[in-house]
Amino acid sequence: MAPELTDQPFSNGFAAKILVVDDEPRLLRSLSSLLQERGYEVSEALGGRQACELVNSQAFDLALLDLRMPEVDGFDVMSHIADTQPDCGCIVVSGESSFTAVSRALRRGALDYIRKPFDPEELLATVESVTGKQSLIKAHEQVQFRLEKSEALHRYIVNSSPDIVFMLDEKGRFCFVNSKIESLLGYHPAELCGRHFRHIIDDRDLARGTYALQGPNITSDNPRTLEVRLKTRGSRRATRHFEITAFPIDPQTWQHTENTTGNFNGKTAHYYGTARDVTERKEAEAFINFQAYHDLLTRLPNRALFKDRLELAITHARRNGQKLAVMFLDLDRFKVVNDTLGHAMGDRLLQAVTHRLEKCLRKGDTLSRFGGDEFTLLLPSIHSHEDARGIAKKLIDALKAPFQLGDHEVFVGVSIGISLFPDAGDSMDQLIQNADIAMYHVKAKGKDGYRFFSDSMSIDTANRLNLERDLRMALERDELRVYYQPQVCSKSNRIVGLEALVRWQHPERGLLYPRDFLPLAEETRLIGLLSERVLDKACQDVGRWIRAGHPDLRLAVNLSPIQVEHPKFVETLMQRVAAHNFPAGNLEIEITENVIMNDLEQISQKLRELAGLGVRIAIDDFGTGYSSLNYIHRLPIHTLKVDQSFVKAIRSGDDGACIVNAIVAMAHGLKLEIVAEGVETDEQLEYLRGLGCHQVQGFFYGPARPALEICKALGQSTARAVAF
């Protein structure tokens, strides 16, 4: 038996007693506190089962409940309240907003429907409104109460629906439309009644929308559902997407009347339907589609979209007998920036590079980010090599100017491989692969340039793959050998230094020299591991000779640009030196001018750190690069090494001799030591001695030799020509 409710109306000073039901404790406490602060007497029920128990034992004026609850859901609680306390009103507070759920809740007796997350002021206003209505309803006859409740139910279903609800006559003119259309599209219901629904359909969907209701198979059990764009009123707001469901009205079940109110003409209604706003879903689908085919960092087409466009361009070119070009672009020195300044700056650099590259494109070209710092470019409908060559030059020139990243000024270049259809391949994969192969040939020749693919590159690439495999195996099998070439004092003929040079004892091809495999090692990033092996072995050998009675013996090692440009170059180098207890003052590192000029600021700092630790710095192949007196004067450089091409040209009146004269004179003026490479004859040696060249190395004293032979030579007081 239901407990007796109070007969005292709320307006006479009695606080309404409210039951709050939810299966989320935090939300339950929040809602309860909100109502208690407004003066309501609140009881809490954690879930539907507890709510039913409280309804059996206590009387309530109002219940606020969720729909989705385990075991006993909100619909069951509403049914129990209706059976046990019919005078207790219900307000649904739920995240479920579908038309079906709202309709079902209201049919079960809900007085209002509040969607989560709720606005506190809106909820309190709704509660006050409902409790106020209850106080009035209690003063009237029971029959009148039920009539008003029924009217409120239908009014809420139609006018408070999250969807647009409409009725159309047989010709498609509005008979009725609820007020939701005003908040969604800006139209007042009164201005649409009597007008054809095509008035609000976007022009792009007009034909499809107009004929949608003319299908012969539309019934109440088989409604017409379609998605169209509806126009907003005026130009202030964007077109929105709606999912429309329309049912034909059965005259046998539709009990209309001759009387109409407002703009509603129920007698002429032929269709009933709803229009749900799905704009957010469509935008989400468009964004997901964009993600699938674009790179989000640069906003460029990604690999998948590029391949789709290339496939289409190939089909078009084949049909019309035209040419097209595919370019494979790889940024030079990007990894240095990324490792030094961090990934955030690397991302900014990629965006800045993209902006410059896009300015070089023609209408119809497709630039894509293929991955990392690699880009691909499709040039459809070109006439000759010259069209592609012109674009390649523009791309290279576009990246020559420095990029400003915060307080840092950085330089990057680009290596470009080009393949032409149909000369370099007639399929998508062939064109991309061959452009990639051509790009690697640019890298091998010094970077920052372009090359067209040729058939000979395929042979080189096959050999390259085999050699790369063998080189990786060589590192695992310890097939690398360290040879040493003496650096001899030109006056005393004493060995003062040893340059460590790597050799590869290939199991099938015999002894390989650096020119045969070092370019590949740099391409494949194996150069770091290879150099570590060489440095370890050289420190062991030379360190042993130093401790055996040659304390001033100097070890010279060549370092690749990849090693020097690495952010932790100094730290890594000194760790390996210390691991072998090798004296830093006996170590001389050889780097080229180009490495220094690639990033003068960063390299300068690293060289100063090394010099501060006692390591000597030598400029290798001096005279073949920038040869800038400015950087030589600013950096802690100890030695200049004259390139062997100048030494070979030492003859009476030759230009090479003039260059050697200038370099030696400059070294003396800057108080630098000088080493001449490639000395092979008495004539060259005597000429260099006459200039005051401090040290020489070359075949005059023999080629580079294994450690065992060097050890024997060190036991002699002086080095002799081709003697060891």
Automatic annotation (TrEMBL):
Reaction(s) catalysed (UniProt annotation): 3',3'-c-di-GMP + H2O = 5'-phosphoguanylyl(3'->5')guanosine + H(+)
Keyword Phosphoprotein set for record: yes
Keywords, in A-Z order: c-di-GMP, Phosphoprotein
SMART domains per the UniProt record, alphabetical: EAL, GGDEF, PAS, REC
Residues with PTM 4-aspartylphosphate: D66
UniProt entry tagged with the keyword Hydrolase: no
CDD domains the record matches: EAL (cd01948), GGDEF (cd01949), PAS (cd00130)
EC number: 3.1.4.52
Cofactor(s) needed by this chain: Mg(2+)
Domain GGDEF stretches: 322-455
Taxonomic superkingdom: Bacteria
Sequence ranges assigned to domain EAL in this UniProt record: 464-718
Residue intervals of the Response regulatory domain: 17-131
UniProt feature coiled coil, ranges: none
Principal EC category: hydrolase
Biological-process GO terms, alphabetical: cellular response to nitric oxide; phosphorelay signal transduction system; regulation of DNA-templated transcription
Signal sequence coordinates: none
NCBIfam families named among the record's database cross-references: GGDEF (TIGR00254), sensory_box (TIGR00229)
Matching PANTHER family: BIOFILM ARCHITECTURE MAINTENANCE PROTEIN MBAA (PTHR44757:SF2), DIGUANYLATE CYCLASE DGCP (PTHR44757)
Protein name: cyclic-guanylate-specific phosphodiesterase
Organism: Marinobacter nitratireducens
